[in-house]
Amino acid sequence: MALPEVVTREEWLEARKKLLTAEKAATRSRDALNAERRRLPMVAVDKEYRLDGPDGEVTLAGLFGDSQQLIVQHVMFDPEWDAACPGCTAGIDELNDGILTHLRSRATTFVLVSRAPLAKLQKYAASRGWTVPWYSSHGSDFNYDYQATLDPSVPQLEYNYRPEPDITEDGKSHETPGLSCFLRDGDDVFHTYSTYARGTDSLGGSYSFLDLTALGRQEEWEEPKGRAPRVHGADPTFTD
Question: Where do the domains of the chain lie?
């Protein structure tokens, strides 16, 4: 095993300060990228999607609950499968009630959506001990419209914002991972963001999820200004 070089404390401190400069630059670059994400325009959702949940059928707007924002994790679970994909499973295993509670404190609801029937989702969730809300989009266009299912019978074969005709060259449909964010303004629902493939790599903590949304972490130091409800307070100390 190749281990780090052994040096004196003074040499280590010099190297650490050099790395800190690069880390701060990366933090500022990430903040600028998140600000650009919040400046993205949004698209009205004019289709009434209906999904199956533990309390029966619900619309996309109904998934928000009392929140203004909604984050949907597209979990790969084909109707023919008996389990979700291992990668999605590993990510959901790391979710906990603390993360979901923190998201809700920022008026953001987090749910899972898959194409498999609800009974299969509930059975698998019970086997994993999951409590995060999970809904079935079976029979709706939701997965297809948000690039979570690629099917050769659907004209638009696109994943991660580029054509992917080769994915379905076997003639079968394929489930894909991703996250989609929505914003509610009164009775109107808008699609603000979706990310796929490596775009989901760094997710896990509640701040990482909030960074994907139109309102962000909702703190005063963030750009653009005017999206931080005062009830959440601000923490301008830790911005760099």
Answer: 9-39, 42-218
Tell me the three-class secondary structure of the chain, residue by residue.
CCCCCCCCHHHHHHHHHHHHHHHHHHHHHHHHHHHHHHCCCCEECCCCCEEEECCEEEECHHHHCCCCEEEEEECCCCCCCCCCCHHHHHHHHCCCHHHHHHHHHCCEEEEEEECCCHHHHHHHHHHHCCCCCEEECCCCCHHHHCCCEECCCCCCCEECCEECHHHHCCCCCEECCEEEEEEEECCEEEEEEEEEHHHHCCCCCHHHHHCCCCCCCCCCCCCCCCCCCHHHCCCCCCCC
Which pLDDT tens digit goes with each residue over 159-175?
888 887 777 777 788 89
> The tokens of 195 are what?
């990310």
pLDDT at 228 over 90: no
Q: What number does CATH give the domain 42-218?
A: 3.40.30.10
pLDDT in tens, 25-73: 999 999 999 999 999 999 999 999 999 999 999 999 999 999 999 999 9
Q: What is the mean pLDDT of residues 87-107?
A: 91
